[in-house]
Amino acid sequence: MNKLANRSRRIQITTEGLSRKQAIIPITKTYANLIINKASMYASLINGLLRSAKLNTCSEFIKLCPGNISIITNNVLAPSNLSIIEKYFKSINGINKEESLFLHLPQSKLYLKITSILFIKPDSNKLTHEDISNSI
User: Fold this and answer.
1) What are the φ and ψ backbone dihedral angles of 65, each rounded to 5 degrees?
2) For residue 103, what pLDDT is reported?
3) Can you give the pTM of this predicted structure?
């Protein structure tokens, strides 16, 4: 019984898949202001489109980010479902139809940079992968 209680208190730190549930539209500042002024209306209209497509996703809100607009959703959208929202934004009055608006999912690239480690051995030779593996 005590082991079960400890398991329920454990905090999950990592998640599988995308950690951000959003679709991103790179857009000019002029068009971004046009959309942000009526963001709540657009979010509810997007929800209607997603429901009519029988998706279990809804847009929670639309926010302005530097250089783009983010549509925050309750689930991660499949790339095939982005066209529904993309077509809607292209149909908004005041947006140039020839403007290349396209939605995409967030893509993160993470890396680890290790600093302050000497890469030359005392005998003036460079460290190799084997040197590091053998020292562990």
Assistant:
1) -120, 165
2) 81
3) 0.60
